[in-house]
Amino acid sequence: MDARERRKILERLRQDAQRIAERFDLKYRAIDAEDPRVKRRYGSCYQDGRIRVRLMHARTGEPLKYSSLIDTLCHELAHLRYFHHGPAFRAFFLYLLDWAREQGIYQPRARQTPAAPAMIASHESAAPPPRRRRRAKSAAPELEQLTLF
């Protein structure tokens, strides 16, 4: 990604951050790109209101999809109200993300599924799909897990 493209993405991200922040009365100081040397996170929010968002994939170095940037942005904006990862934070983060989706800011692509065996030209000779192994149910209640990317 060249400097011009980076500036363009950051400007778009800042405009979208401003829309979201205004709607939810959130105050931030700055939206910047995360240092590319940082490999362990996709974004960060500091108590002084600075937000950093990773623009490039940590392993491949490829630009991240804009929907991934918005997901991270909403996560970090939610920290402006809840500076933790508890249930209130998670609910607010998902609320921000849903609003961004309604506004056309967050547009994740639908996951593509592999072709069904019936769509294979010679489906009679195709081997049946492998059986999926079921995981044993644990006695502990399942916790909701947030996956950013």
Kindly describe this structure:
By secondary structure, this protein is mainly alpha-helical. It has a domain of 100 residues: Metalloproteases ("zincins"), catalytic domain (Zincin-like, 2-Layer Sandwich). Helix content is 34%, strand content 7%. It has three helices and three strands. It has a three-stranded mixed β-sheet with strand order 1-3-2, covered by helices on one side. Helix 1 crosses helix 2 and helix 2 packs across helix 3. The longest helix has 22 residues. The C terminus is likely disordered.
In short:
This protein is mostly helical. It has helices at 3-24, 66-78, 87-102; strands at 30-33, 43-45, 50-53.
Low-confidence stretches: 115-129, 137-149
Characterize the overall form: globular
Order of helices and strands: HEEEHH
What portion of residues belong to β-strands?
Answer: 5-15%
Range of helix content? 25-40%
CATH class of the domain at 3-102: Alpha Beta
Oligomer designation: single chain
CATH superfamily of the domain at 3-102, called what? Metalloproteases ("zincins"), catalytic domain
End-to-end span in angstroms? 20 Å
- Going across the biggest sheet, name each strand in turn: 1-3-2
| Content-based structural category | mainly alpha
Radius of gyration equals 20 Å
How many distinct beta strands? Answer: 3
